[in-house]
Amino acid sequence: MKRKVIHLVAGARPNFMKIAPLYHVLRKRGWCEPVLVHTGQHYDYAMSQTFFEDLDIPEPDIYLDAGSGSHAQQTAKIMLRYEEACRKSAPDLVVVPGDVNSTLACSVTAKKMLYPVAHLEAGLRSNDMTMPEEINRRVTDSICDILWTPSGDADENLLREGIAEDRIQLVGNIMIDSLLTLERNGSISAEAVPQELASSPFGLVTLHRPSNVDDPAKLEKLVHVLLEAAAEAPLVFPVHPRTAKQLERQGLRRLLEMNTNVFLVPPLGYNAFVGMLKQACFVITDSGGLQEETTYLGIPCLTLRGNTERPVTVSLGTNRLVSADSLADHLAQALAGSIRGEVPPLWDGKTALRIAARLETYFGVTDA
Ligand code: UD1
Fold first, then answer.
1. CA–centroid distance for 97 within its chain
2. Distance (Å, whole) CA 235 – CA 227
3. In whole angstroms, how far apart are CA 216 and each of 188, 219, 249, 326?
4. Using CA positions, which residue lies closest to atom 20 of ligand 1?
5. Residues in the ligand 1 pocket, defined by CB under 6 Å
6. Which among 116, 222, 243, 294 could disulfide-bond with 145, CB atoms 3.0 to 4.6 Å apart, if both were Cys?
7. DSSP, res 364
8. Per-residue pLDDT for 313 more than 90?
9. Residue 349 Cα, ligand 1 centroid: separation in angstroms?
10. Mean pLDDT of the chain
11. Are strands 168-170 and 203-206 parallel, antiparallel or unpaired?
12. pTM for the complete prediction?
C-alpha cells in the first residue's frame, strides 16, 4: 500500500504541543507519512521555533511564511499559500488543531480541494461570537470529516448543532500527551523562574486576548488589579507580543516594572513555561490551553474571561472564571487552598495513540 500522506498543520503557539504527540506516534507507523505544515502565523523564535526544539519535532516540511496582519489578510495569505502547497503535496488527510486563523484557513482550503480534513480539539464552544476563535471553531467543525473531541461536553455541542454522530470521535486531550512526555523525558526546566523566587510561592500571569489587552481602559484596569494581587504574592508575567505592544503604547509597562513584586519576562518556550507553571501556586490568565494544563496539574487558575470553551475545567477542574472586580476574592480562595479539582476522563497522555488507532480503521490499515 502506498504510504498515506497526512498533513499536520500548525500555525500559532498553542498548536505546536497539539501536533507534536501525533507526529511522534505517526512517524513510527509504516503506513503513513506525517508532513509538518507550518503556516508561519507565529514566527518569532520565542513564539514558534523554540517549541519545535522543546517538543523534539523537526523543521517543518512545508513553511507558508504567512506572518501577521488583519484577520482577513492573515487568513487569505495562508489560504493562497496552502492551496499551492496542497497542489504539490496532495494529502490523503489534513489534520488541523485548535481554533486559530490557521485552523480555519487550512481546513476551508483543503476541504474545497476535496481532501478529507480532521479537526483535532473539535466541539469546544464559548458561545461568544465576538471571539475570533469561536468563529474559527464553528466553521472548521461544520466542514470537517472527522471531529476529534477532548471531552464529552464537546460531543454534546456537536450533536446539538446537528453534526452526524459518525463524524465525532472522543479521543481525549492531546495537550496532556505533550505535558506527560515532557515530565517523562525530564526536560522540564526551572531556568526561567526568577532567582528571587526560587523558594517562595508565586503566581504566574499570562494575558493576550484582544478583549482584555486591545481595549485601553480594560488593560489599564487589569494592570491595577495585577498590582493589587502582587501585594498578596509575587507575580511572574511572561508577556505575549500583542500585550507587550499595548502595554508600551499606554505607558503601563513601567508601572508593572516599578513594582518589586512583579517580574516581567519574555514569552517562554514550552520546557521553561511548564517548569515555571509547576512551581506556581496559582495562575491568572486568559489563555485556553492553560486552563487545561492547570486542571491537570491541580493548580488554581483564575481565568479573566466571562466564558470558557473548556467548561470541564470549571465543573471538574481548578479553573474559575473571574472579572477584574472579582479577582481579589478568588485569589484569596486560591491562597487559602480552597480551590481543588480532579482530572477529566481521557486526559491521560494516550490521546495520540487513540487517534492513530482511529486512523488505521479509517484507512483500512491491517498491518500497523
Ligand atoms: C493567536 C490566536 C489565539 C491564540 C494565540 C496564542 C487567532 C485568531 N488567534 O493570537 O487564538 O491564543 O495566537 O498566542 O488565530 N506577533 C509577534 N511575533 C509572533 C507572532 C505575533 O510579534 O511570532 C505579534 C504581531 O505583531 C501580531 C500580534 O503579535 O500582530 C498578534 O499575533 P496574531 O497571530 O495576530 O494573534 P495572537 O494574539 O498571537
1. 9
2. 9
3. 36, 5, 9, 20
4. 42
5. 12-14, 41-44, 47-48, 68, 99-101, 132-133, 208, 240-242
6. 116
7. T
8. yes
9. 27
10. 97
11. unpaired
12. 0.97
